[in-house]
Every structure is written in C-alpha cells, then in structure tokens.
C-alpha cells in the first residue's frame, strides 16, 4: 500500500510556507490577507490548545457510565472553565484539479482580557504539557488576540453603554477617562474662546491639543477610550498616538464619528472571532482530529453561548458548519489497510508519522502540539485518508479531484468521536448508533467498609486491567456497578471477580460479551476493540495489552481465552488480510491452499 500511497501523494504538493504566528501586534496587518486566503480555500483544518482538559471534581470526570448528554454536560463545564490558548487553522487550496495543494497555516494566540464576571482556571498538567512542547506563555498573555462570541459581545456592549461602563476594560480606565474629560472640556473651552477673538476665525476652530497619558493601553482600551471621549465634548476628534492624546476640532457629523468608533470597538473585541465568521460565511468544510471538544471551544468562544443540551448543539453546529470530517473516523474506516503497516492506534502523531514516511507535505521546525502544526498535520492526514476511502470504491492510485474526495467521505462526515464513550461517535445529523460497551457487572462487597472497599476495588481494577478499561460506581447498599470498555475486558473482569474473596458476583455472564471476547482476542489491541485514553487534545490513544501492568500475566492462566479459538481467528484474520493484498490470482490460490492446511492443523489439535 505504501507504493500506492506514494503514487498519488507525491503529486499532492504545496508551496512551502511555514506556520505564521498571529498576535495582537500583526493581526490587523494580516487580516486582509487571511480573508483573501479564506475566499480561495477548499477546506480548513483546525486544532486548538487549551489550558485544561478535564475537571478534577469527581462528578465532572469522564466515565464509562456517561450517556451522550452527560458527556456533553461535562465537556461543556470544562470548556467554560479552561480557556483556549491557541487556535491553529490550515487553509488548503486545491490547484490543478487536486494535483497540488497550496497551504496557508496560521497560529492565533488567544487571550481574552475582558472576563465579564467569568472565572477562568487552568490545569497544572496541561501547563506542564504545553511547556514541554515549547509553548510561549509570555506571548500568550502579552500578545494574545481578543475573541468574543455574539452573546458575550451583546452583554459587553450593554454594560459599556452604562454611565461608568468603561470599567469593564480595566480598573484604571474610569479614573483615566474622568481625568481626560476634565482636561479636554477646560482646555478646549479656553482655546475656543481665544480663537473666537481672532478676526475672521470661526468659533469652533482651535489648534490641536496634545495631552500626555501615563498609562500604557492596549488596542481595545484605546478604542473604548476614544469612543467615550467623543461623547464628552461635541465638535472634537480625538486620536491616540503612542502615549499622546491629540484633540482636534471636527465638523464631521457626530453620528458618523460615533458609528466609526463603535465599529472599531466591536472589531477589537471580536478579534479572532471575525476569522471564524469569515469561514462560516464561506461555508468551508471543516477538518479536525478528535474534533468534538475543538468544535465546542470554537462555538463557545467565537460564535455564541453553547446550549444546555446535546441535541440543540448538534442543530446549531450544523447550521454554521454544514460539513465536518474527522480524521479519526476516516482512519477507522481504513483500519484494514492501515493495520497491515502497523498503524494500530489513530492518534494524530501516529497517522502523521506513518504518512510522512511516504511523503512530507510541509516541513517545519516546530513540534507537534503547536496548534498550527497540528492543524496542517490534520489536513495532510485528511487528504491521504480521503484517497484511501476513495480507493475502497475504485482500485486506483491516481490523484483525485477535491470534489471527488469530498463525495467519497460524505457518508462518514459529521461524525465526532468521543473518548471513553460507549457510542462509536456523536452523529451531528441524526441519532447516535447504539453503545458498544458490554453490560455492567454487579458486585457485592463482603465484610469490608463501603468506602474503603470502593477505593480498593477502583485501585485493583486499574492495576489489573488498565486505567481506562474499567470504571466503578456505587449503586445501593453494598452493590457496585463495574463498567468495561470492551467485551474482552468484560470477560476478564467477570472471570477474575467470580472467585474473588472480598466480592460476590451478582451478574449473570453475558453470552454476547463472552462470545465476542473470544473472537476479538486476536484484535484486542486494535482501535476498533478498545476505547482509548484521552491525550492532551482529548484524542484517544488505543489501549493495547502492552499498556497494562505486569500483574496481568499473573492471572493470564485463569482468564486467557481458549487457545483453539485464538488460533482459528488468527488463521481467518490473517488469511483475509493476505488475500486482500495479493495482486495476482495465482498467489491468491496459493494463499487459499495454505489457509486450508493451517486450518486442518488447528482442527486436528481441537479433536485430539
């Protein structure tokens, strides 16, 4: 497959362009260029970095017991508590009917200076993670760009129009505003009286009045100050030049001045939100990797307040982003082709490393977990995976037009994977598929303290089966519910606690789970047979058997699936993979003959 991949990927080239960092210092300068790129782009790949992933409160932690609505509520709580730090957007423009792609990559540093009563927090683990990957926190706080959704903008403007509303832009703003107002009114009145005494001079004419300002203001504070100063004295025009406020006479209609200054205040507050709105107006396809939380962040901080229910969010999300494709979903659709080359988990780093071994689209000195780098990696992976999905339907290695790629992946679009959730994905355009998680296991504690027993059980489950494979919840009396992520894990947990001295098994074994665990024992380490551990982005890393503690080996003799079933499935699975990959009918017949021989040997072992 790597030869075929190189066949079409080597022609998907781009004009080499490094990631462009956008801060408050160059945002206005680059804004026009960004809008031009958006108008010409074919699709936008996104990624975000944020200052926290999961709340430490027990009720807010992700759980295998979560329903889709419960997980949405927990994610909503985290999104509102931990602000975004970076937004990376990679705009891909198809050239020569998809033979080449031009890529423009932007990394926006995000920092909201107006809190409006909202308390933000951060996670120590997330800060450490970002610091290890070279994140510049000084640039974030000093040069971050403002962002604000439409609901927040309306609330801020309502507050701003109140008599002392300028205080929302900083505690130093009201004293500064009142000080400048007194000086302007006094000095302008003197200048006007002096100019009125000059022969032939109109009464409103006076030379420019310079006023020094000691405080250093950001662009938003400067715009708000000029808007407020305009209303204090009629017939004037104010300009801020560094730390000097210049006051000039003006014959421009006050309504026009007020409108222009008001639009400037709104633009300063919106910031990066204007870029998101331009993407929405252009109706660009959005590409992400494990993008459920990314979409929540973009909607909450750049579009509008998130609703309380998942169903309402799905409706609103489709109204602004009609086409969303997730590379993790596409990778799962191509799992057979990817697994042949050892790609057993679908983290962005793994996909990017594999595809880069075929062809490197964009070279950069920055590491992963920079939002811009992750965004362009997501876009590159999308192009490769979209071709693989198309190759399932047409056995060809030609470079397909972008519209053809979109048509091929449309059946898998608008699906968002969510780690540690029973359903395979959240469907933005319909009902979610049924849960893949097995039935719950019910245990009863025997002669031990309730709380100590629960904590001991939780610790034991993590040690024996892995941190992300099992979850426990107290039900009633001494009964405990145990949730597992796969049928294989269910089978192992059931067998282990059926003979445990401190717990009594109350559940009846699930025939579906046990039979499925036998058939999945060969592929238990594959992404389709596991629910991954969320990394910093909320992406899932597949949990294979090697991630468990060594204590698993101590009980392997008592909980291992039957050897004959494993052998049978190894033969069946291996023969399918080899048969699909063999190029000629002659080799296919040889593979079939070899499979029959191996199957006969397995049957012989089973019978005697």
Automatic annotation (TrEMBL):
- Note the coiled coil stretches, chain numbering: none
Q: Please give the Gene3D superfamilies that the UniProt record associates with this protein.
A: Ribonuclease H-like superfamily/Ribonuclease H
Provide the residue span(s) of the region labelled Disordered.
Answer: 516-559
- Record's InterPro entries? CAF1_poly(A)_ribonucleases, RNase_CAF1, RNaseH-like_sf, RNaseH_sf
Q: Name one GO molecular function term.
A: RNA binding
- Which GO biological process entries does UniProt record here? nuclear-transcribed mRNA poly(A) tail shortening; priRNA 3'-end processing; siRNA 3'-end processing
**GO CC annotations on file:** nucleus
- In Pfam terms, one family for this protein is CAF1
Biased composition annotated in UniProt, kind: Low complexity? 516-530
Top-rank lineage group of the source organism? Eukaryota
**Similarity annotation:** Belongs to the CAF1 family.
Could you identify this protein by its name? Answer: Uncharacterized protein
UniProt organism field: Pristionchus pacificus (Parasitic nematode worm)
């Amino acid at each position: 497959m790597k030869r075929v991949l190189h066949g079409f990927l080597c022609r998907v080239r781009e004009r080499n362009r490094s990631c462009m960092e956008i801060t408050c210092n160059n945002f206005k300068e680059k804004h026009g260029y960004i809008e031009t790129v958006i108008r010409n782009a074919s699709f936008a790949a996104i990624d975000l970095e944020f200052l926290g992933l999961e709340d430490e409160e027990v009720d807010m932690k992700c759980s295998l017991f979560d329903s889709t609505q419960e997980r949405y509520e927990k994610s909503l709580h985290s999104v509102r508590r931990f602000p975004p730090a970076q937004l990376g957007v990679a705009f891909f423009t198809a050239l020569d009917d998809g033979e080449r792609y031009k890529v423009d990559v932007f990394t926006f540093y995000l920092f909201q200076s107006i809190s409006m009563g909202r308390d933000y927090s951060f996670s120590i683990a997330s800060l450490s993670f970002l610091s290890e990957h070279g994140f510049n926190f000084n640039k974030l706080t000093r040069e971050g760009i403002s962002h604000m959704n439409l609901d927040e903008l309306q609330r801020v403007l309502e507050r701003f129009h109140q008599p002392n509303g300028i205080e929302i832009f900083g505690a130093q703003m009201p004293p500064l505003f009142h000080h400048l107002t007194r000086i302007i009114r006094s000095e302008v009145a003197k200048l006007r009286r002096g100019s009125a005494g000059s022969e032939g001079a109109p009464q409103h004419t006076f030379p420019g009045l310079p006023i020094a300002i000691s405080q250093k203001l950001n662009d938003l504070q400067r715009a708000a100050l000029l808007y407020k100063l305009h209303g204090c004295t009629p017939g004037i025009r104010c300009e801020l030049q560094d730390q000097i406020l210049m006051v000039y006479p003006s014959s421009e209609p006050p309504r026009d001045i007020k409108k222009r200054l008001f639009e400037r205040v709104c633009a300063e507050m919106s910031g990066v939100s204007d870029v998101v709105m331009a993407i929405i107006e252009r109706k660009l396809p959005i590409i992400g990797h494990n993008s459920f939380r990314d979409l929540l962040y973009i909607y909450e901080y750049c579009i509008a307040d998130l609703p309380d229910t998942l169903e309402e969010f799905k409706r609103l999300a489709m109204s602004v982003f009609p086409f969303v494709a997730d590379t993790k979903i596409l990778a799962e659709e191509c799992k057979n082709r990817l697994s042949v080359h050892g790609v057993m988990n679908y983290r962005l780093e793994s996909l990017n490393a594999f595809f880069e071994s075929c062809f490197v689209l964009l070279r950069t000195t920055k590491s992963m977990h920079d939002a811009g780098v992750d965004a362009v990696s997501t876009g590159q992976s999308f192009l490769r995976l979209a071709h693989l999905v198309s190759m399932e339907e047409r056995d060809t290695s030609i470079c397909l037009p972008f519209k053809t790629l979109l048509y091929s992946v449309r059946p898998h679009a608008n699906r968002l994977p969510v780690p540690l959730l029973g359903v395979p994905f959240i469907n933005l355009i319909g009902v979610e598929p049924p849960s893949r998680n097995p039935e719950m296991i019910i245990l009863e504690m025997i002669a031990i303290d309730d709380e100590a027993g629960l904590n001991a059980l939780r610790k034991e489950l993590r040690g024996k089966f892995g941190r992300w494979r099992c979850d426990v919840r107290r039900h009633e009396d001494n009964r405990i519910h145990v949730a597992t992520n796969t049928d294989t894990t269910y089978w192992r947990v059931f067998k282990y606690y059926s003979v445990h001295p401190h717990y009594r098994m109350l559940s009846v074994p699930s025939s579906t789970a046990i039979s499925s665990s036998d058939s999945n024992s060969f592929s238990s380490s594959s992404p389709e047979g596991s629910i991954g551990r969320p990394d910093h982005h909320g992406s899932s890393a597949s949990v294979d058997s090697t991630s468990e503690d060594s204590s698993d080996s101590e009980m392997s003799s008592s909980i291992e699936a039957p050897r004959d079933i494993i052998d049978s499935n190894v033969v069946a699975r291996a023969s399918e993979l080899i048969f699909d990959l063999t190029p000629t009918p002659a080799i296919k017949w040889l593979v079939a003959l070899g499979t029959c021989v191996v199957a006969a040997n397995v049957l012989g072992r089973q019978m005697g």
